[in-house]
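Milestone 3.1: sequence recovery, worked example.
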C-alpha cells in the first residue's frame, strides 16, 4: 500500500496537484503504468491481465490474510479461534467517482463516541470509499447540524444531495430497526442512485456502548437483560480511567479531530514496533503516525493513546482506537512528521521521540508535557446498567484490598466485601519491616514471639481500619503466604547496606539468607507450611484479626465478618491442624475480651491435590477460594512469570488458543474446580465458594 501511495504522491507533486480528482485520464494512465512496475518489482512477475486471474488472486489474498501477523494479533486480542476461518464476498462494483452526482461515505446510525441518537458520519463527492478514510481529502459531514458543529464550510450531504439524503436516512433507520443495534454503514451514490455496500454493528466507545444499550432498552427495542449483554465487561474499564483536569494548565501544541475520547500521557514513539517494545518495558507511550494502517494494530494496542496527522473521524485510527478504548486525535494536519529524524513539528516547535506529551481525545488536542488528570464519576447510564445487571446476576463480587484507599474505593464501587486481603503487603511497611526481619533472624520461638509482639499492634490497626470501612460486609484475610526470604535482601551489597542502616548483624543476615534460599520458592516453604512450622506467626495474625473485629463491633453499626483463609493447603490433616490453631486462638481472644464475633475459617484451593481431595478439606474448612492463578500454574507446571518466553510459540502453532492465565482452561483447571466443588459440597453442603485470581472476570 505504501509503495502505491508513494507513486501517486510523486505524480501529484510533479503535476502540482493535491487532490486525486485533479488528475486527468492521461495522468492516471501514467500512474497505472508505474503501479504495474511496482507489482512486477515486488512480486517478480507482471500484473495479470486475465480478469479471472485477477479475481482469483484477490480471493486468494483475502483467504491468505487470515494467517498474517495482524490477523493473528487481532484474534488473540478478541479471543477469536483460528479454526473459524474467514470468507470472501464477491460483488460487482459501483462507482462514487463519476462526477458531481456521485459520492461515497461512511455513516453510523448513532454517534460512536457519545452514543447520541442521531446520524453521524462523513462523505465525499466524486470519490471512492478509500478516499474517505485515507485522509488525502478532507471528508464532509453528512448532516447540516454536523457541518455547523464542526465549523465546516463545505456543504453537507443533506445540503448537496437532498433527495438522495432523504432516501439514505430512511434506509439507515430501517437497518438499525432490523438489527436492533447501532449500525456502521458504507454507501455509494453513483450518478444520483443510492447503493448500500455493507452494514455491521458499529464499534463504539464504552461511554457510547452504555448510552446506546440503555437508550435501546428505554425505547423498547431490547430488554434490560439484553442491554447488559450488549456492553463488553472489558469496555467498562474505559470508564474507570482518568480524564484531564479542567483546571490544569494546558499548552496545546496541535489540534485535530476528537476521534476517540479520553486522555493519556506518554512518551512519543513513531512506529508500532517501538510502541510495543517500550510498553513491554513498562513505559507509557503515545503513538504518533502520519496515519495508521492494520499493520500498526499491535502498536496501537500497546500505546496509551494515538495521534495521526491525517484521517477523519471514520479513519482506521479513529475506528480502531474507539474499539480499543484508546484516546485518539486524528487529522492533526499541523503536525509534520520526519520519520528519519524521529521528530514532529507543530506550531513552530519540534518534538523528539521519547519526549512526553498528553492527548485529549475528547477535544482533539495534543498538549506539551504531562497534564494533571481527574478520576471519572460513574453515574447515569453506568449506574442504570449496573442496577439491571444486579437483577440478573448469580455471582457476588468482592474486591482485592489491603489498604484503606483500596477498601473505600471498592465499597464506593459497590463491592460486596473483600475477597482477598494479602497480609504480606502490610509487612513491607517501613514502620514494621525491621520487626519482621528481627522475627526471621530469631534463633528460637521465644525470639520470634518477641518480634511478633512488635508487629501485632500494626496488624491489629490495619484490620481495625479495614473492618471499619467494610463494616457489615465479609472480609477474607489470607494469612502470610510468601516465603520468608522475600522479606530480606538477597545480595551481599544489599545486606551490608541494610545492616549499616538498621544495626542488624550483617553476618547473621547473610547466614539466614543462605539458609532460607530455595531452588523453587513457589513450591517451597510458603503458605500454610509457614503456619505449621512457625505456628506463632499465624497465631499473632488470627489474634490481631479477631481483636480488631471485636473493637470495631463496639463502634460500628454492624459487626465485621472476618473470614480467615489459610493458603496453599494440600492435605486434610493440614487443614485440621490450622482450623484447630485458629479456633484455639479465637477462644483465647474471646475469653480475654468477654465478647465474641462470628468468623469463618477456610482455604485457598491452588493445588491439584487440594481440588481432588476437597472433601477432606471441607471437613474443617467453611469456605473455598479458588486461587486460579496458582492453580493454573500447578496444573500445567508453567510459571506465569516465565511463560512469556515460550507461550507465544504455543499460541502461534495453535496448541493454545488463548493464554491460560488470561482465559480459564475449562477442560483442565475448570474440571478441577468442578471436582472440588462437588466433593466439597458432598461433605459440607453449605461450604462457601469463590474465585480469586485473574480469571475472576473471565
Amino acid at each position: 500500500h505504501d509503495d502505491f501511495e508513494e507513486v501517486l504522491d510523486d505524480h501529484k507533486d510533479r503535476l502540482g496537484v493535491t487532490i486525486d480528482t485533479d488528475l486527468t485520464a492521461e495522468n492516471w494512465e501514467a500512474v497505472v503504468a508505474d503501479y504495474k512496475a511496482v507489482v512486477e518489482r515486488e512480486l517478480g512477475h507482471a500484473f495479470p491481465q486475465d480478469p479471472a486471474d485477477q479475481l482469483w488472486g484477490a480471493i486468494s489474498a483475502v483467504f491468505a490474510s487470515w494467517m498474517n501477523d495482524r490477523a493473528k494479533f487481532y484474534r488473540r486480542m478478541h479471543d477469536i479461534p483460528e479454526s473459524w476461518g474467514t470468507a470472501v464476498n464477491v460483488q460487482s462494483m459501483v462507482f462514487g467517482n463519476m462526477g458531481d452526482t456521485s459520492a461515497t461515505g461512511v455513516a453510523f446510525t448513532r454517534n460512536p463516541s457519545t452514543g447520541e441518537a442521531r446520524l453521524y458520519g462523513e462523505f465525499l463527492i466524486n470519490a471512492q470509499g478509500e478516499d474517505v478514510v485515507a485522509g488525502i481529502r478532507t471528508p464532509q459531514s453528512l448532516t447540516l447540524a454536523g457541518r455547523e458543529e464542526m465549523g465546516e464550510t463545505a456543504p453537507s450531504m443533506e445540503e448537496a444531495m437532498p433527495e438522495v439524503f432523504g432516501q439514505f436516512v430512511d434506509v439507515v433507520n430501517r437497518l438499525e430497526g432490523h438489527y436492533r443495534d447501532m449500525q456502521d454503514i458504507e454507501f455509494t451514490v453513483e450518478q444520483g442512485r443510492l447503493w448500500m455496500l455493507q452494514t455491521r454493528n458499529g464499534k463504539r466507545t464504552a461511554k457510547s456502548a452504555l448510552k446506546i444499550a440503555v437508550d435501546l432498552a428505554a425505547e423498547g427495542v431490547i430488554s434490560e437483560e439484553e442491554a447488559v449483554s450488549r456492553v463488553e465487561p472489558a469496555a467498562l474499564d474505559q470508564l474507570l480511567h482518568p480524564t484531564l483536569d479542567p483546571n490544569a494548565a494546558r499548552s496545546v501544541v496541535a489540534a485535530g479531530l476528537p476521534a476517540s475520547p479520553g486522555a493519556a500521557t506518554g512518551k512519543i514513539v513513531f512506529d508500532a514496533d517501538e510502541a510495543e517494545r517500550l510498553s513491554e518495558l513498562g513505559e507509557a507511550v503515545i503513538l504518533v503516525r502520519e496515519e495508521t494502517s492494520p499493520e500498526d494494530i499491535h502498536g496501537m494496542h500497546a500505546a496509551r493513546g494515538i495521534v495521526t496527522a491525517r484521517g477523519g473521524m471514520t479513519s482506521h485510527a479513529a475506528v480502531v482506537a474507539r474499539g480499543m478504548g484508546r484516546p485518539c486525535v486524528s487529522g492533526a494536519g499541523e503536525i509534520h512528521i520526519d520519520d528519519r529524524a524521529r521528530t514532529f513539528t507543530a506550531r513552530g516547535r519540534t518534538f523528539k521521540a521519547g519526549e512526553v506529551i498528553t492527548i485529549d481525545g475528547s477535544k482533539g488536542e495534543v498538549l506539551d508535557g504531562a497534564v494533571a488528570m481527574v478520576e471519572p464519576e460513574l453515574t447515569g447510564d453506568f449506574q442504570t446498567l449496573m442496577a439491571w445487571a444486579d437483577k440478573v446476576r448469580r455471582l457476588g463480587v468482592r474486591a482485592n484490598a489491603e489498604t484503606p484507599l483500596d477498601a473505600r474505593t471498592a465499597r464506593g464501587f459497590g463491592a460486596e466485601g473483600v475477597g482477598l486481603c494479602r497480609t504480606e503487603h502490610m509487612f513491607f511497611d517501613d514502620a514494621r519491616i525491621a520487626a519482621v526481619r528481627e522475627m526471621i533472624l530469631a534463633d528460637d520461638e521465644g525470639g520470634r514471639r518477641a518480634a511478633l509482639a512488635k508487629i501485632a499492634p500494626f496488624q491489629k490497626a490495619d484490620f481495625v481500619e479495614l473492618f471499619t470501612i467494610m463494616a457489615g460486609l465479609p472480609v477474607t484475610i489470607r494469612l502470610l503466604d510468601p516465603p520468608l526470604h522475600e522479606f530480606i535482601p538477597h545480595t551481599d551489597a544489599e545486606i551490608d547496606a541494610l545492616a549499616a542502616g538498621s544495626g542488624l548483624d550483617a553476618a547473621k543476615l547473610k547466614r539466614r539468607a543462605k539458609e532460607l534460599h530455595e531452588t523453587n520458592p513457589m513450591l517451597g516453604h510458603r503458605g500454610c507450611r509457614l503456619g505449621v512450622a512457625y505456628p506463632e506467626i499465624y497465631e499473632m495474625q488470627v489474634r490481631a484479626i479477631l481483636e480488631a473485629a471485636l473493637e470495631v463491633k463496639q463502634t460500628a453499626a454492624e459487626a465485621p465478618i472476618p473470614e480467615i483463609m489459610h493458603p496453599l493447603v494440600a492435605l486434610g490433616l493440614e487443614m485440621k491442624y490450622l482450623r484447630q490453631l485458629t479456633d484455639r486462638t479465637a477462644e483465647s481472644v474471646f475469653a480475654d475480651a468477654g465478647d465474641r464475633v462470628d468468623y469463618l475459617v477456610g482455604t485457598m484451593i491452588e493445588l491439584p491435590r487440594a481440588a481432588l481431595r476437597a472433601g477432606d478439606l471441607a471437613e474443617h474448612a467453611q469456605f473455598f477460594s479458588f486461587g486460579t492463578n496458582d492453580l493454573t500454574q500447578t496444573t500445567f507446571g508453567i510459571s506465569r512469570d516465565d511463560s512469556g518466553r515460550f507461550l507465544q510459540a504455543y499460541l502461534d502453532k495453535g496448541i493454545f488458543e488463548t493464554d491460560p492465565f488470561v482465559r480459564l482452561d475449562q477442560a483442565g483447571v475448570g474440571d478441577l474446580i468442578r471436582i472440588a466443588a462437588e466433593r466439597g459440597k458432598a461433605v459440607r453442603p453449605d461450604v462457601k465458594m469463590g474465585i480469586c485470581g485473574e480469571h475472576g472476570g473471565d
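The longest strand covers residues 193-201. Residues 445-469 form the longest helix (25 residues).
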